[in-house]
C-alpha cells in the first residue's frame, strides 16, 4: 500500500509580511508589522520586516525554484494592507494584480495555490480603530474577505482563514499582533477572531461555493509532566486553552461549557451576542489545517514556579491555577530551544482527526537554524533533512493509523524573517543571501535539503 495518497499536496509555506518586503511598493499601505522592530518590546540586534526576503521583487524566480523542487502546492498569505487601502474598503488594484500574477504563475507550473487570508499583518487603519481587540475588526475582516473571494475566488480551491488564531490570544504581544502597551482581554480578542473567521466561512460558501475553506491554528499534543493525577488535570486544562477551544468553536459551533466555566474561575468572561451564536453555529469548515512544531509538557503550577518562563508560540505557555508548561527532558531541542518531537506529530495528527474527523492539511512544520553559506555556495543543512525525515515518517504512520490527509506544507519554502528572532533563524529549503542588517544581494542558493525534498516529492514520499 502507498504511504501517501496519489494526489498528496507536497509543498511549503510562507507569509506575506515575513517574505515580501517592499513595504512601500505597489500601493501597499502600512501595517503594524512594518514597524514592529521599532517597538521597545522587539528583541534588539535583529532585523524587522521592512525588506524581508524581497519576494515582492523576486516572485518569478522564487516560483521557479518551488517548481524545480516539484511542489504540488504552495501556501502563502495575501497581505491585507496590499489589498485594502482604508477602512472604507477602497481596493488597491496593484495589490490585486500582484497576487493574480503570482497565482497564474503557480498554475503555469502546476502548483496549487493555498491561500491564507490573514497572517498577522494588521493594517494600521485597523489598528487605529483598536486592531483585533474590538468588534469593529469582524466588520472590517468581512469587507476584506469579500474582496478576496470576489477577486480570487474563481481560481482558489483551498482557503485558510486566520493563521494561528490561537497565538493571537496566547502569545499576541510576542508575535506583535497586539501592541505591548495595549490592555487586552485575550479571550474576548479570540472571540472577535472566531466570529471574523465564521463570517468569512459563510461568505466563502456564498461567493465561491466550490472552494474549500478551513482554519489554520497551531496545534500540539500536551503531555502531563508526570503520572500525578493533578498533572493530568493541568494537561486537560492546557489542552483546552492551547488547542481545542479554537477547533471546537469552528468545527462544533460552540465553546465547551468547561472552557466558559474555566474563564469564570479566572474572573474572566466573554461577551457573545445571539447573532454571533448563530453565525458560529453555521460555519463549519471543509478541512482542518494546522501548524505543528513541537509538543508541550505541563504540570500543575505553584505560584512560585510560574515566575521563570521564556514565552513564545512554542514555549512557556502557563496559566495560574490551570497549568504550567515545563521542559521535556526526553526531547532534543533546536538551536533556538524549541523541542523536537516527531512522534508527537503522529500523536497530534491522530488526536485532531479522532476528535473532528475532517481531512487534515499541515500548513507549517520545520526547524529554525543558523544555516551557514559555504564559500562554494552550498548550505549543508543535514539537521533539517533529519528533522523532516523523522516527521514525514511519523506522518506516514498517522496515515496508516487512519488519519485522512490532504497535504504537507512545511515552513518555509524559502528563507524569511522569523516572527521575533530575525533572519538568522532560517527555515527555508532555499537560502537568501542577507544578514540581519546587511541586505547583501538577496541571491537565492539551494540548500542540501532542497535536493532532498525534490527527491522525496518525486517519489511521493515512498522512499522515506
Ligand atoms: C508560526 C507562525 C509563522 C512562523 C513560524 C516559526 O507560529 O505562523 O509565521 O514564523 O511560527 O516561528 P518563528 O518565526 O517565531 O521561529
Describe this entry's structure for a reader.
The chain is α/β, with parallel strands linked by helices and 464 residues long. The chain has a single domain (9-225, 243-258, 274-296, 336-459), classed as TIM Barrel, CATH 3.20.20.80. Helix content is 38%, strand content 14%. It has 14 helices and 16 strands. The chain has helices spanning 16-19, 59-69, 80-83, 93-108, 124-127, 136-152, 165-175, 186-207, 229-251, 257-265, 274-281, 342-356, 382-401, 448-458; strands at residues 9-13, 73-77, 112-118, 158-163, 212-216, 222-224, 288-291, 296-299, 318-319, 323-326, 332-333, 339-340, 360-364, 405-408, 430-432, 444-446. The strands form four sheets. It has an eight-stranded parallel sheet with strand order 5-4-3-2-1-14-13-7. The chain has a four-stranded mixed sheet with strand order 6-8-10-9. Helix 6 (136-152) runs parallel beside helix 8 (186-207). The chain is globular. Bound molecules: 6-O-phosphono-beta-D-galactopyranose. Residues 15, 18, 163-164, 167, 218, 291, 313, 364, 368, 411, 418-421, 425 line the site of 6-O-phosphono-beta-D-galactopyranose (BGP).
Gist of the model:
The chain is α/β, with parallel strands linked by helices.
**Contiguous helical run count:** 14
Task: Tell me the CATH topology.
Answer: TIM Barrel
What is the percentage of strand-forming residues? 5-15%
What are the secondary-structure elements, in order, as H or E?
Answer: EHHEHHEHHEHHEEHHHEEEEEEHEHEEEH
Can you tell me the CATH architecture? Answer: Alpha-Beta Barrel
- The number of domains: 1
Shape: globular
- Helix content, binned percent: 25-40%
| Biggest sheet: strand arrangement | 5-4-3-2-1-14-13-7
Number of strands: 16
Instruction: State the major sheet.
Output: 8 strands, parallel
Mean pLDDT: 95
CATH domain class name: Alpha Beta
Q: Which spans have pLDDT < 50 for at least 5 consecutive residues? A: none
The class by helix and strand makeup works out as alpha/beta
The CATH superfamily turns out to be Glycosidases
* N→C terminal distance: 14 Å
Rg value: 21 Å
Oligomer state of the chains in this structure? single chain
| Distinct compounds present | 6-O-phosphono-beta-D-galactopyranose
